[in-house]
C-alpha cells in the first residue's frame, strides 16, 4: 500500500524523463467524477485524460483510502493510501503488475506480461522497463493527480 507521493517518487527510478514530460504535456481532464464511499472510508476520482500527443482519451481512476469523513473532507497525497489505474498500454505493461503486487492497483488485475524478446545480453534483447517491479504512475495519472491537487480536491 502506497501513497500518491510514494508512487510518484518511484516513477523517477523507472523512467526519469516521464515526470518531466508529464509537466509539459497539455492534457485535459474530461468527465471528472468524485464518488465518496462512507462504508469503506474512501474517495474515488475517475475521469478521462485527452492526450495531446496522440489525440486519444485514456480512462484514469484514483482511489484514496483511510479518510474518516469522505463526504466532507479531502484526501492527502502524502498520507492516504492511493490505488490507481489508467487504460494506457504503458501503465498496463510497466506498472500494472507491480501495482497489483504492492496493493496499489485500482480494480481487477491485468493479465501478467509475457515477455516475447530475450533478456540482455542476448542478441536482439531489449532492457526491461521496470526490473525492480516498483509501483508507479504513467504520465496520464501524474497529470490527473496534479490537476486534482491544483483544483484543491487532494491535499498535497
Describe the fold and architecture.
- This protein has 156 residues and is an alpha+beta fold.
- It has one domain (2-150).
- Helix content is 29%, strand content 23%.
- It has four helices and five strands, in the order βααββββαα.
- It has helices spanning 4-14, 17-24, 89-102, 139-150; strands at 2-3, 28-37, 42-50, 57-65, 81-86.
- The protein has a five-stranded antiparallel β-sheet with strand order 1-5-4-3-2.
- Helix 2 (17-24) packs across helix 4 (139-150).
- It is globular.
- The model has no long low-confidence stretch (mean pLDDT 87).
Low-confidence runs of at least 5 consecutive residues: none
| Helix amount | 25-40%
Summed up, the domain count is 1
Alpha plus pi helix count = 4
Average pLDDT metric: 87
> Structural class per helix/strand content?
alpha+beta
Distance between the termini: 18 Å
Query: Largest beta sheet: what is the strand line-up?
Result: 1-5-4-3-2
The percent range for strand residues is: 15-25%
| Sheet of most strands | 5 strands, antiparallel
Tell me the number of strands: 5
